[in-house]
Design a protein that fits this description.
The complex is a heterodimer of chains A (288) and B (276). In chain A, 75% of the residues lie in helices and 3% in strands. Chain A has 288 residues and is mainly alpha-helical. Chain A has a domain of 176 residues: MetI-like (MetI-like fold). Chain A has a two-stranded antiparallel ribbon. In chain A, helix 1 runs antiparallel to helix 13, helix 3 packs parallel to helix 8 and helix 10 runs antiparallel to helix 13. Chain A starts with a helix and ends with a helix. The mean pLDDT of chain A is 87. Chain B has 13 helices and no strands. In chain B, helix 1 crosses helix 12, helix 5 runs antiparallel to helix 7 and helix 7 packs across helix 9. With 276 residues, chain B is mainly alpha-helical. The longest helix of chain B is centred in the N-terminal third of the chain and has 32 residues. Chain B has two domains: 53 residues, no CATH class; 203 residues, MetI-like (MetI-like fold), CATH 1.10.3720. Classes of the chains: A mainly alpha (288), B mainly alpha (276). Chains A and B meet through helix 1, helix 3, helix 4, helix 5 and helix 6 of A and helix 1, helix 4, helix 5, helix 6 and helix 7 of B.
Chain lengths: 288, 276
């Protein structure tokens, strides 16, 4: 029922957002793309000519590349596994009738609101420090030798820290999805005498599948980009250098902009693969 | 519909859930407790729990030695400013797409979402360079703009899903009664849109407050917000757990409180309306 006038007004209202986002996306991305074909070292002579795809080959060929890919896959995969599995269990638990449900919910989701630098430093010092950390106290209490978390099991430690932060996100979304489940269907199954496990397997899990997919996709996109927690804990040492961190080091620490930009383009492509799947689901949702 | 369960089952649920809840919350609790200890008590083995001489000394020291309030002020300006600016742009955009949809609306929405997926590290150097050229490095203004831009897609999306829920019939009824576009917006839509706008503001403040890629990379001393201030504790001198705890507690307390109010909105905002 929109008139021509309201249509052009609507366009005018939409324009600032579109123009801003277009500029935010196109300008820096184009620059990264251009840099990626250059030999460009700002602190050592600046622009030194065009090199075609050399940076792309060198980035993948460097000895740091495959370990970084491995670390990235381990961290993203590990965190996804922990948060999704525990998130489902926790969401099922929180959906049960109990006393003080609201308070428990608040306790469980709180870690998500802690800023990443606090998360990293509190875990690194107050929990994982081999001398004064609480986990070291706990180990000694049981007569064990304290673990030097961030250098003995660095990737596992990072997975633990990141999972603590993201478990609330998975739990909250899965809980929201469970609560939208038709409880009559569950009760019917219960009355038919379907055992708990089969109710979970045949009714709850299929119902959750879309929410689980969304959790996985969104978390993957954010987890690929984790930066601050590594920045304040290991600075990428002890094999905790992810792709994101490697690119950051190439660009800002060693100021090899050409090489780092090629890495950046890889990161953009990688993120877009997951984004495409996510957008397909979100887009379907728009049509409904 | 409430399911009926035995009191015994409910008691077990309650016990298990509380134990897990406290376990997950424990690092935050421990940080808050430690912030009131002396440095010696903070590393005591066996740890001291509740029975120690509670002191506010750490809070005083953090404020005096590192001028905490300046970082706090920067956080407030950046989070508040980016949210306010973002809403100015996002509300009209979401509004027009929700109420005057065209056949491009869906594509525009999805495209906006795709800009959110852009990995920050992929555009780090260009932004850094642009900031140097424009003299924006280590300025609150520059950071406010960048953080506004990274959260703009979430704002538009979230507002869009809220506006979509406002029934179109109400608009038509208002038009029949002779309401013009201005009246329509002011008296009919705005009151219905306020809850959605408030939720979006809340979530956006949380996201902006905790943003820690651009704030770490684009600030030094002047414009550094709390995320960067806390990061300065990664190269400590001497005993510092109690002070780290005090600084951390102050940095997370306001957001924890806001966050608890916005649980539901968080789901909608971060899943782009795909889970409600």
């Amino acid at each position: 029922m929109s008139t021509k006038a309201s249509r052009s007004a609507a366009r005018l209202m939409l324009a600032p957002a579109v123009i801003l986002l277009l500029a935010w996306m196109l300008v820096p991305l184009t620059m990264t793309l251009i840099f990626s074909f250059q030999r460009f070292l700002p602190l050592r002579g600046g622009f030194q000519g065009w090199v075609g795809f050399e940076n792309y080959a060198r980035f993948v060929g460097s000895s740091a590349f495959w370990p970084a890919v491995q670390t990235t896959v381990l961290i993203v995969g590990g965190v996804l596994l922990i948060t999704v599995v525990l998130g489902i269990l926790l969401a099922l638990l929180l959906d049960q009738p109990m006393w003080g449900q609201g308070i428990v919910r608040i306790l469980v989701i709180a870690p998500f609101f802690v800023m990443p630098t606090v998360t990293g430093l509190v875990w690194k010092n107050m929990f994982m420090d081999p001398n004064n950390g609480l986990l070291a106290h706990l180990w000694r209490f049981f007569g064990g030798d304290p673990v030097v978390w961030l250098s003995d099991v660095p990737v596992f430690s990072i997975i633990l820290i990141v999972s603590w932060q993201w478990l609330p996100f998975a739990t909250l979304i899965l809980l929201t999805a469970i609560q939208s489940l038709d409880s009559e269907q569950l009760e019917a199954a219960e009355m038919d005498g379907a055992p708990v496990l089969s109710r979970f397997w045949h009714i709850i899990l299929p119902h959750l599948s879309r929410a689980i997919t969304i959790v996985i996709l969104i978390q993957t996109i954010f987890l690929l980009a984790i930066f601050a927690k590594i920045f304040v804990t290991t600075q990428g040492s002890f094999g905790t250098r992810t792709l994101t961190y490697l690119i950051y080091q190439r660009v800002l620490e060693s100021q090899n902009v050409g090489l780092g930009s090629a890495g950046g383009i890889y990161a953009v492509i990688l993120a877009n693969i997951f984004a495409l799947f996510l957008m397909r689901i979100v887009g379907k949702n728009l049509d409904r | 519909m409430a399911r009926t369960v035995t009191a015994q089952r409910k008691a077990i649920n309650t016990a298990v859930a509380w134990v897990i809840g406290i376990l997950i919350f424990f690092p935050i609790l421990w940080t808050i407790l430690t912030s009131f200890k002396t440095e010696a008590q903070a590393i005591a083995d066996p740890p001291v729990w509740f029975f120690f001489d509670w002191t506010l000394e750490n809070y005083r020291v953090v404020q005096e030695r590192s001028n905490y309030s300046r970082f706090l002020w920067n956080s407030i300006i950046i989070a508040g400013g980016s949210t306010a600016l973002g809403m100015l742009v996002a509300i009209p955009a979401a509004w027009s797409m929700a109420f005057v949809p065209s056949n491009q609306t869906k594509n525009i929405l999805l495209w906006m979402l795709s800009t959110k997926m852009l990995p920050a590290v992929g555009v780090l150097y260009p932004i850094y360079l642009i900031f140097i050229q424009l003299g924006l490095l280590d300025s609150r203004f520059g950071l406010t703009i960048v953080i506004m831009l990274i959260n703009l897609p979430i704002m538009v999306w979230m507002l869009y899903t809220y506006f979509k829920e406002i029934p179109g019939e109400i608009l038509e009824a208002a038009r029949m009664d002779g309401a013009g576009l201005r009246e329509e917006i002011l008296f009919v839509l705005t009151p219905m849109a306020i809850p959605g706008i408030a939720s979006t503001v809340l979530l956006n403040i949380i996201l902006a407050w905790n943003e820690a890629f651009w704030t770490l990379n684009l600030t030094a001393a002047r414009a550094a917000p709390l995320t960067a201030f806390i990061a300065s504790y990664s190269s400590p001198e001497g005993l510092f757990y109690a002070k780290l705890s005090a600084a951390s507690t102050m940095a997370i307390a306001p957001i924890l409180i806001l966050g608890w109010f916005s649980q539901k909105q968080l789901v909608r905002g971060l899943t782009f309306g795909a889970v409600k």
